[in-house]
Amino acid sequence: MIQYSLEDLQTILQLDSRYYGFLDLSDPKNSELKELIQRTITALQDEVAHSYSMNIIKQHDGKLVPTKSDQPISDGEHIKENSCNTQYQSKDFKWGMSNETSSNKSVAEIDEVDVNTYCKLGHLHLLMYEHSEALSAYQKYMRLCEKYWEDHAFLYGIGIVYFEFRCFKWSIKSLQELLYLNPHFTCANEAHLRLGLMLKANGEFRTALKHLQLALIDTSPSTFTDLQVKFQIAHLYEVQNKHKAAKESYEFILNNKNVSLDLKADIYRQLGWMYHCVECLGEKKERESNALLFLQKSIEADPKCGQSLYLLGRCYAGVNKVHDAFLAYRNSVEKSEGNADTWCSIGVLYQQQNQPTDALQAYICAVQLDKEHRSAWTNLGILYESCGQLRDAYACYSNAIKRISNKKIGNGQEGNKAVFSKSSTNGLTKGLAQRVKFLESQLSQAPLPSITSKRRQLCSIEEAWNLPISLEINSRQQQQSVQMQQRQFGKNPSVQGPPPPYPHSHGSQSNPLPAKRSKDDGEYSNQKNLNEQQDKLLHQLSAQNRQALKNSSSPGPTSSTSTSETISDRTNFGSEIISSDNIKEDTDANDLARIVSTVTDQKLKIRCQNISTKLSEDQGLNNYDGTNVSIKYESLTNCNDDTQNNFKDQKPKVEYDNDQESLPTFNIQMDSKQLLSAVKLLPVDEPPINFTITAKNAPPPAPPDCPPQRLTREQLLPPTPSVHLENKKNAFSPQLQEFCLKHPIAVVRGLAGALKLDLGLFSTKTLVEANPDHSVEVRTQVNQSPDENWDVSQAKRVWACISHRSHTTIAKYAQYQASSFQDSLKDEGDKGSAGSQVMSDSDSKDSVSNSNINLKRKRQKNGSKMLRFGTNVDLSDERKWKPQLSELQKLPAFARVISAANMLSHVGHVILGMNTVQLYMKVPGSRTPGHQENNNFCSININIGPGDCEWFAVPDAYWGGIHNLCEKNSISYLHGSWWPVLEDLYKENIPVYRFIQKPGDLVWVNAGCVHWVQSVGWCNNIAWNVGPLTARQYSLAIERYEWNKLQSFKSIVPMIHLSWNLARNIKVSDVKLFELIKMCLLQSLKNVFHLQEYVKSKGVEVRFNGRGKNEASHYCGQCEVEVFNVLFIREQEKRHVVHCLPCALKLSPSLQGIVCLEEYRLSELQQVYDSFTLYRTQGLGQAH
Ligand SMILES: [Zn+2]
User: Fold this and answer.
1) CB count in 10 Å sphere of residue 411
2) How far is the CA of 902 from the centre of ligand 1 (A)?
3) How many A from CA of 1121 to the centre of ligand 1?
4) What CA–CA distance (Å, rounded) separates 1102 from 20?
5) Mean of pLDDT over the chain
6) What is d(CA 948, CA 926) in angstroms, rounded to the nearest whole number?
C-alpha cells in the first residue's frame, strides 16, 4: 500500500476542478505535484477495483450463505445515507455482477467505495487533462450521489469536461446550475465565459452577451485575458450582422498595446473577411483592397493559420487574381489539409478556368472531407450539368438538398440566427428544388443510359467517389470522435454527437451514392494510397495555375470569365454559392475550437503561483514528517477534520458550507427577532448566497417530467372547456371564476354581448381616430396554415419560427390591414359582404374572412407569402385611451385589469402588458408563437373581431415535455420563438386543446398553460395578465422566477417585492398560499440581514435611502436579477447602476467604490413580517 505524508494529503485535499487551466502540470516545476496526483489516481483506482473484487467474492459467499444478504442493523445507516435512486445503482453495477442482483444488495456493495472517491478521481483526471477518464468518474459520482449538486466544484468540473467534449447541452446545464446555486463560486468568471461561448455557438446571442459581459467585469484571475473576452464580444456582434459594432470593437482591441500576436491574427482575419463580404463597410474596390491587406496582416501575425490563407484565396479569386488565389489555397491546404471549404473553392476556381476534370477532383475532395458540404455538392451538380451529365447532376443536387435540410435541423436556431444565412439559403434551396424537379422530369423521359451512348466528358459521380482521393486524416478524426462518443455515452452515440455524415442514413434508394459509400466506409485501409492521390492533385495545382494565369491575364472577355457567367446564369444560384456565406458559420466553429485550444494552452501564471506558494506554505506549516497515512477517501476526509484548523486559512475559497450541522435552521414559525438572532450565527466570511424560496439543499430547478399516464388519441385532443354567457348575471357569478380556475384554459363565449361591451372602441377605425401616430411593433412572418410550420426552404416541418421585428404606427398598420383585406377580396373575386364595413364594425360576424382563408391557404402552398403582424401596442396611457380602458371596467372582477384580488395590482408599478392592456392588430395568419405567460401568470384575451383566432394550448403539467422538444429542435424554450409540430406533441403523449375564438369571446389562460395563437381572419385582440390570489398561481410564479434565474432570463414580475406588498396589503386565509408567501418573506428577510452583516464585516456602510412612491422595483444592471432592499450602486458612464451583490463583488472584491443603499429599514420589514399572519375566518373569501 502506498504511503502518504500529511502534506501530500493536504495538497490532494485542496485540488479540485477549480485549478483547471491554472495549474500547468507539464511545467517541470510542478513535476512533484504531477507525480503525487498520478500516484493518488492509481491509489483511488485501486480502491475502487478492490471493492469490486470484494463484491464478486461477496456475491459468491452470498450464494453459499443466503442469509448474508440481510443487512446487519449497523449497516442500516449507510444504506440510508446512500439510498439514492436504486435504479441507477443497479444499472451502474451491471458490469460487476449479474442482472438478477437485488437492488438491496447493490446498495450494500456501493458502501465499499465512498462516492466522493469518484468525484475526487474526476477532479484529478481533469487536472491531468485526462478528459474521458474525468468524465466517467464524474458521471459515476453524479449517478451515485443523491445530492450531487451540493458539490459546486463537481458541477464546475463536469461542466468543463462536457465543454471540452463540445457537449454543449450538458455543459450549459451544469454550469447554469452551478451559477444558480452559487453565483460567488471561485471560478464563476470561467463558467460565465464558457456559457457565453456555447450560447453564442447555439445562436442565443442575447444571453451569450450577458454571460460574456459578466465574465469581463469579473476582476478575479481568468484563463482568458480581457482582450480575448472582448474579442468574443466583438465576434458576437459580427455573427448577429451588427457589422459596424463588430468592426469598431475589433479595432478597439487592436488599439490596445497588449494585444497578443494570436489575437491580432484572429482580429485581422475577421476584419479582412468582413471587408470582403459586408457591403455597408464601403466601396467595393476599397473593401477588396482592405480585405487583402487585413488577411495578409493576419497571416503575418500567424503564418500557420490555414483559415486565413484560405480566405485570402477567396479574396484573390474575388478580384480575379487567379494565380494568387491558387497559391493561397495551396498554402492553406498545406497548413490545414482537412478543410473542405478550401477544396470546394479550389474546385470553383478550376471550374472558372474551364478545367472540369480538376474541378471534379477538388469537389470530390471537399465532399469526402465533409459529406454535409452543400456548396460542394451543389457546385458538383452544376459542373455535371454543364457537361450534360444529368443523372450525375441530379444525384449531386439531391445530396445538396439533403445537406441543407440536415443543417436546418441541426442548426434550426431561434429567429435571429436564421436571419444571417436565411435569404441566400432560401433562394438556394428553392432554386435547387426546382432544378431537381426539372432534372427528374428530364430523366424520366430520357432513354435508359446504355454503354454505347456517347462518351462522357467527366467520370460519373460513382466513379469519381471511388477514385481514391479521400483523406485519411479526416476519416481518422471522425473515427476517433465516434469512438470517443461511444465511450462517453454508451451504446447510442448518435443521440449526443452530430449525425453520422453518411447520406444513406437519411437515404433515398434512388441515390446512386449511398450503396457505394457504405462500401467505402469499410475500406479505409488503403489510406496511404489515397493520400498520394491527394498530393498529386495538390501538385497539379502549381503546374496548372501557371496555365490558368495565362488564361486570365489575356485581355478581353476570356473563356474563363464566360464560363463562370454561364454557371451562374443558367442555374441562377451558382454565384451565390461561390460567395456562399456558410463560410461564416464554419469560421464560427473554427473560432470556438481555436479559442478552446488557447484556453487550454495558455495557463495563466497567477493561479499556478498561488497553488505552488500554497503548497510550500503547507509544507512549512506542518513539519510533520513521521506520519504516513495510507490513502483511502475516508481517511482523507477524516484527516480533513483533524487538520482543519491548521490550514483553513490557506484553503482557496471553498464552498463546503452545507455540511456544517451547527448552522441554525429557519422556519416560518420564527418571529423576526428569532430570525435575526439565527442569522447572526451564520458566518460572514463568505458572501451569502441569495435564495428566494428554495430551501438550502433543494435541487436546482428543472423542467418537470410529463405526467406518466398514457393518453388515448381522444385524450390527446381534449374538448376545450367553454361556457356560453347569456347575460350579465352569468358573467358575475362566482361559478364562472371557479370554472376558469379549474381548467388549464377556458373560452368564455358571448362575453361581450352579455356585458354589452362596446368592442367597437378597439376597432382599427376607432384606434386610428384616437391615436393615429401611436407606435406598433411589427413582426414580419411567413403566412402558413395554423397546424403547419415549415422551414424557410419549405422542405421540412420545423419548430423554429421566424419573424423579423420592426416598428410602425397605428395609422400605417391600419392601412396595411385594410389593403390586405381589399386585396384578398380582389383576389378571390368575392361578391360577398362589404369590405369597408369589416374593418370598423365589430358586430358583423364576418364569414368572409374564414372562407377567404381557406383559399389563401391553398395559394400559399406554392410560394411563401409574407405578412405583417401588429403586436404589443401599448394601451397603458390612461389619458390617451380613456374610453377604451373605462369600457373594460365592465368586466367581472377576476378578469379586470386592476382589482384587489389580482396580485399584479399589488406590484405598485406598471409592468407593461401585464398589469396594463396591450392590443394586437392582425391579418390572417398572424402568429403568436408558443409560450407561457411571464412568471406563469394567468392571462385574459378578448377577440375584438371581425375575424376569428385559432388557439392551441397544452396544460402546464406538460411544459417540461415541450421544453425538451424545443431543446431537441435546438431552440431555446424561453428565449426562442417556436411553433410546435402537433404530431411531435402527440408522439410525446402531450395533449393539445384546439379551438376557435370568435369576436366577443374571452379566452382565460390559466397559470402556466402553454399556448400559441394564429389569426384566421382580420381582427384585433386585447390582452393583459391577472394573478388570482391562489396558492397555485403564487407557487407557479415563484417556480418560474427561480427557473428564469437559472436560465439568465429576466423575470419581469419582481416576486420578492410583490410578496412584501402582498403581505402589507392583503389578509390571506388560504393556509397553503399563506405558507408560501411567508416562506418567501422569511428567505428574503434572512438574506437581507445576512447580506447587511456581510457588507458591514467588509467595513462598508449601509446607507438608508428609502423608496419613492410607485418607484419601480430594481434589477441588477449586469445580470438582470431582482435586487430587493439592499442595492449596490456604482457609477458607470455617468449613470448610477444598481447591482446585485455577486455582480458588485465581481467589479470590486472589496466593495470599494460601491455605495450600498437600503430601501426599507430593517425594523419596517420586521414589522411587516411579524404582522403577516394567517387570517382565520369562517367566510368564503380568501382575501379581502
Ligand atoms: Zn447581478
Assistant:
1) 15
2) 29
3) 6
4) 37
5) 76
6) 11
Check residue 978 and report its DSSP letter.
B
Give the model confidence (pLDDT) of 150-180 as tens digits. Answer: 999 999 999 999 999 999 999 999 999 999 9
Cis peptide before 946 (omega within 30 of 0): yes
Range 393-397, long-range pairs (CB < 8 A, 24+ positions): 393/439, 394/436, 394/439, 394/440, 394/443, 395/461, 395/511, 395/512, 395/513, 396/461, 397/432, 397/435, 397/436, 397/439
Buried b (16+ CB within 10 A) or exposed e, 755-769: bebbbebbbbebbbe
Q: How far is the CA of 1122 from the centre of ligand 1 (A)?
A: 8
Least confident interval from 167-181, 475-489, 936-950, 1084-1098: 475-489
By C-alpha distance, which of 691, 692, 703 is closest to 932?
703
Considering Cα of 133, then 137, then 140, then 142, what sign does the dihedral take?
negative
**The residue count for the chain:** 1184
**Cα 22 to Cα 128, 599, 604, 618, 1155, distances in angstroms:** 12, 10, 6, 19, 33
Taking the C-alpha atoms of residue 654 and residue 644, their distance in angstroms, rounded to an integer, is: 12
Average pLDDT, integer, range 182-186: 93
d(CA 142, CA 136): 10
- Please compute the mean of the pLDDT values over residues 313-335 and round it to a whole number: 83
CA of 105 to the centre of ligand 1 (A): 48
Grid cell 498529386 in the structure block, residue = 536
Mind listing the pLDDT tens digit for each residue in 447-478?
Answer: 655 444 556 678 887 777 776 544 433 443 34
405 CA distance to ligand 1 middle (Å): 40
Who contacts 590 (Cβ-Cβ below 8 Å, separation ≥6)?
307
* Beta strands in 735-876, from DSSP E residues, in sequence order: 745-749, 775-782, 803-809, 866-874
Any residues with CB less than 8 A from the CB of 25 and at least 6 apart, and which? 33, 34, 37, 127, 128, 129
Cα of 911 from ligand 1 centre, angstroms: 21
Burial class (CB in 10 A: 0-12, 13-18, 19+), 492: exposed
Q: Is 1114 helix (H, G, I), strand (E, B) or coil?
A: strand
- Widest Cα–Cα separation across the chain: 104
- Taking residue 641's Cβ as centre, other Cβ atoms within 10 Å add up to 8
Torsion of CA 1129, 1130, 1133, 1138, to 10 degrees: -30
Calculate the CA 57 to chain-centre distance.
48
The set of cell numbers assigned to 811 is 395609422
Residues 848-855: contacts with CB within 8 Å, 24+ apart?
848/1017, 849/924, 849/946, 849/947, 849/948, 849/1016, 849/1017, 849/1018, 849/1019, 850/947, 850/948, 850/1016, 850/1017, 852/824, 852/825, 852/828, 852/924, 852/1017, 853/924, 853/925, 853/1016, 853/1017, 855/827, 855/828
Task: Give me ligand 1 centre to Cα 1050, in Å.
Answer: 11
CB atoms within 10 A of CB 397: 28
Contacts of 843 (CB under 8 A, 6+ apart): 759, 760, 945, 999
d(CA 759, CA 947): 13
Rounded to whole angstroms, the Cα distance separating 576 from 892 reads 59
- Using the mean position of ligand 1's atoms as its centre, give its distance from the Cα of residue 1116 in Å: 5
Centre of ligand 1 from the C-alpha of residue 1099, in Å: 21
* C-alpha–C-alpha distance, residues 832 and 848, integer Å: 7
How far apart CA 617 and CA 526 sit, in angstroms, is 58
Could you give the 3-state DSSP secondary structure of residue 1127?
strand
Whole-Å CA distances, 1156 to 214, 1097, 1125, 1129: 20, 13, 10, 6
The single-letter DSSP state of residue 1000 is T
Amino acid at 873: V
Q: Which residues pair with 722 in a beta bridge?
A: 747
Q: Are 932 and 1039 in contact, with CB atoms under 8 Å apart?
A: no
Sequence-distant (6+) residues with CB within 8 A of 176 are 195, 700, 1046, 1047, 1048
Q: Can you list the positions of beta strands (E) in 72-156?
A: none
